[in-house]
Amino acid sequence: MSSSVEKLALLRDALKQNSIDAYIIPSSDPHLGENIPDHWKIISWLTGFTGSAGTVVITDTFAGLWTDSRYFIQAEKQLEGSGFKLISPGPDMDYIDWLAGNISPESKIALDGRIYSISSFRKLEDRLINNRVKIDFNCDLIGDMWTDRPALPSSMAFDHPVEFSGKERSLKIAGVREQMKKEKVNYHLLTSIDDIMWLLNIRGRDVPFTPLLISFAIIGEEQILLFTDENKIPAELASGFDKFGIVILPYEEYSNIFSSFREGSSILITPGTTSTALFYSLPDYLKISEDISIPSRMKAIKNKTEIENIGKVMVKDGVALSKFFCWIESSLGKVPMTEVFLAGRLLKFRSQQDGFLGPSFATILAFNENAALPHYAAKPETDSEIEENGILLSDSGGQYYGGTTDITRTISIGIPTQQQKKDFTLVLKGNISLAMAKFPLGTRGFQLDILARKPLWEQGLNYGHGTGHGVGYCLNVHEGPQSISPADNKTIIEPGMLISNEPAIYRESEYGIRTENLILCYEDEETDFGQFLRFDTVSLCYIDKSLIDKSLLEQKEIDWLNRYHTEVYDRISPHLTESEKMWLKVKTEPI
Q1: Is-contact 66 93, C-beta < 8 A?
Q2: Labelling 481: which of 5, 195, 318, 547 has CA 20 to 30 A away?
Q3: For the chain, how many helices (H) and strands (E)?
Q4: Do 478 and 439 contact (CB within 8 A), yes or no?
Q5: CB-neighbour burial class of residue 187 (10 A; exposed 0-12, middle 13-18, buried 19+)
Q6: Cβ partners under 8 Å of residue 298, min gap 6
Q7: What is the CA radius of gyration of the chain?
Q8: What's the farthest any 2 CA atoms get from each other in the chain?
């Protein structure tokens, strides 16, 4: 079955047979993560939309997709002829609000509670309370329809040794248990796979772009129950696990274990990553505490070894990027270039770096109007040829044993227009402003967001995504709890946190400009007014000076750029050929 229209018709038949008035499908899996295995990419299979974020609502007369601003243009194109429509931004943007305004009283709404978080379910219940609807959260209508559904992945776990992790798994486990005692909980349910990978110092290859092994875990006072396929744990790792009371159980049994817990025990869960089905499998006699997981809080603060390794990885990544951009410039007009071809060439340069595991997300190499799509990924049907004049945006990253990278550079092919130079310089000003920020301990990301947007706002410009996301360590490229955006995130920015800095401008049907570096928070001075913090820009790649309108820069911004370019040259050039060094020297000369 290949037609989205046919699939939609079959799904509506299933709604009718089950007396369902509306069916909700989120883009998630039982772990509620961003990157999910093909087995759980229901929205892509059903609608043709391939973005990483979205929710579909289907009734007998309506089929709509909600997604965020990164994917509006992409979704419009991919949904054409599918029977589904993109619900544009506006008062009815939220699918729950749409349901509240369009579903009749006493209606039946259904969803698969295995892939729907309990926090989202509570919002759904609260918003629809006046509609007096029935919500069935044990409804899987896709399983029987998707006959050629990909199997769950079956990669082997591998060790992430202390030379990279910086701390033995025994110490991490002890630290989590110590915090559990402080919070007076007997058990801690881990549903986010990255938490489990960090805690046990292991990695896997089950999920695209992120070295994860599909699993659940429960930390007890003496044992840790790890729910994954036993044949995915090598004998040497399994033997090591035995020493620390780590018991391997079948993946499917994760929701059946709670009945064995003693009455009156307390368990800590994270509502945003705990599925509705899993939450309601918890016995009533357990005391439930809810908070961000303890490993999530701990791993957001990179330790000394991790920070040292991140520095080394940034050099490797910078070398790959320098060789890549040098090759583009020397080969332009001699070698036919397209977006897909360049993405493959960049992967080749990164693959030559020691410790490289793979890309950290789908590489965005976008030319001109394609660069106006914030999360565009070139495919054969959209592949654009790199011509003599235009804007090329490269947003890419790598997974290394010693860290995770994410960097965006925008370069000019040919001679840029004055508007392009102005846009680029305003974005650069925002990036430098955040990079130079000094702020007191206790500051939250939403308080810093204005620093990156102010130069744009003053010119009546803006961008629709966040300014910065937390970055994992050989884990998720998007990994909180920290972030920098207009959203009211309660997490404070602390020393050791790695965050992206990526202001942007997108002009639809023309071009997109984004400059992104990773920044590491560290302690600055302590005064009578408290401890102050700063950022260190750790990404290492030249910024295209041909796109800079120097008249728009203040002297402190020029000084920052010149210092940054000096560091880029000093740290990258020893790893380049003589011709590449000469090229980079020109690219990093002071302005």
Answers
A1: yes
A2: 318
A3: 17, 28
A4: no
A5: buried
A6: 172, 175, 176, 179, 198
A7: 25
A8: 74
Say what the pTM is.
Answer: 0.92
Set out the domains of the chain in order of their start, with CATH numbers: 4-136 (3.40.350.10), 158-299 (3.40.350.10), 304-587 (3.90.230.10)
Short-list 100, 105, 95, CA closest to 128: 100
Q: Which two tokens stand for residue 50?
A: 């391939």
Report how far residue 293's alpha carbon sits from residue 289's, in angstroms, rounded to the nearest whole number. Answer: 11
Cα 543 to Cα 25, 318, 386, 397: the distances in Å are 41, 12, 20, 17
DSSP state of 442: T
The owner of tokens 């009371």 is 245
Q: Which two tokens stand for residue 298?
A: 């701990």
Instruction: Please spell the DSSP secondary structure of 35-52, one letter per residue.
Output: S--GGG-HHHHHH----S
C-beta of residue 520 within 8 angstroms of C-beta of residue 538: yes
> CA angle, 251 as apex, 248 and 257 as ends, to 5°?
75
| Three-state DSSP state, 158 | strand
Strand, helix or coil for residue 465: coil
Question: What tokens does 37 get?
Answer: 């295995």
**Digit-coded pLDDT (tens) for 479-500:** 999 999 999 999 999 999 999 9
Nearest to 328 by CA among 230, 227, 413: 413
Nearest by Cα to 429 from 446, 396, 452: 452
